[in-house]
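Section 3.1 - Work completed
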Amino acid sequence: MTDLKTSLKNPPYLQSSLSMLLFFASWGIWWSFFQIWLTSETSGLGLNGAQVGTVYSVNSLATLLLMFLYGALQDKLGIKKHLAIGVATVTAFTGPFCLWIYQPLLQDHFMLGVIAGAVVLSVGFLAGVGLLEALTERFSRRFNFEYGQARMWGSFGYAIVALAAGFLFTINPMINFWVGSAIGLVHLLILVLWKAGSKQHGFAEGQLKMSAASTPGVKEMLGLLKLPSLWLIILFVMFSWTFYTVFDQQMFPDFYTGLFESQETGQQVYGVLNSVQVFVEATMMGIVPLIMRRVGVRSALLIGVSIMFVRILGCALVDDPILVSAIKMLHAIETPLFILPIFRYFTLHFNPALSATLYMVGFQVSAQIGNVLLSTPLGMLHDGLGYKFTFMIISGVVLLAGIYGFYTLKKDDEQVDGDPFMRNVERAAS
């Protein structure tokens, strides 16, 4: 792989990075306050914990179904961008959909609104993110650049808009959705008009598809579910990342803004803190590949889970806004230390030709199954017992998942059926 300076001269890297930046910006401008919009009595819909859990659960179910389709189709397409263009098209209509369809339905016909939102948001964002990340990872291997260095621009995009999201939200939450539409439109134009990776950059049209020998069939994809080693990682993801996601997305925003004297102050501070956190996260996206080369894929993944546990438990034990803000910053370290190693784990221990399907099934799909099953029960648990006790339960589950992973995750030199991984010390020795 090349360094960042060389990558900046690589057109496919530049387009992949800009695509990541614009997609996460179009998503983050409203998603960072989505849970607050659902629950706020003054500036949102005023839903209770069980209703919010239902929204997230049905969203995850729709996302789950789409991920199988996205993974299979993208593995057939190789690095062609047809699906990515479809995703960007949907993101460009976020504002009109939320203003004229989604909000009225959630207020007057709740379940119909939940279903409509699940379809649109999953097609454009919740399943779309896994598709675009898998496509970017495939571009990185085909055109010789670090996936983490491209993915970090997505975090930068999220951070840039998060800085303004809180202030826009206190004016009118719909502004956030409309800004997301505008950014989505720019993303769509970039994907359609910029032909990076095509023959104009020295790559023949035939190179955009995978060879017949490496293109997986449906039977081969279904055969993945027969692999015991894949189920081991699926269980690990479900009991670590899934519980953490429910905590971070479904509960933490409202918990944090409730620590302040007024919701408006809490929302503005949350937006600024979220932006700072994501800027640090973006930086970590470029640093984590270096950490992996030093400690290995498996060790980096276990470190990420350990930080998850510390952050959730910390929020259960303190209620001072400054301390909770400091604890939230752990998310900037944990997310890259989980996402990048888990992707590399799949390409290390499984057939790289199935990377998109493996990522969809082994990480994204397993996480969504967990969200379908857990969002509503955990929302009801919060309604009955409050945030702190719920956080303690979630942190306990994540701790058990980390112990399970310590004993079940394969070492970097064990069952290497994909691209081998060498730590820096191994490179020096060879």
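Second construct:
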Amino acid sequence: MTGAILAAWGVTFALRAAPFVASRWLRDNELVEEFGLLLPVGVMATLVVAMLQDTPIVNYAWVPTVIATAATIGIHLLRKSVLLSIVTGVAVYGLSLALL
């Protein structure tokens, strides 16, 4: 039992420490820089597709989705902040669902 706990601790510690140890070698890596540029766009695209794929078109159920999408695009064009855009879109979607 103690051996299993120590093994789990060791694996967890190694996985948590790995990014800090590897940061020296990854700092100047072109692939990592490209991922850093493309990942926010991928997150935004995934959120948009996930939200739009289950949106029914009947009974005005699509209105909160359109409002939230427009708010997300507007904030992103104004501030150029992916985090602020995502948070704004989620908040506006939740508020528009509650109010409509």
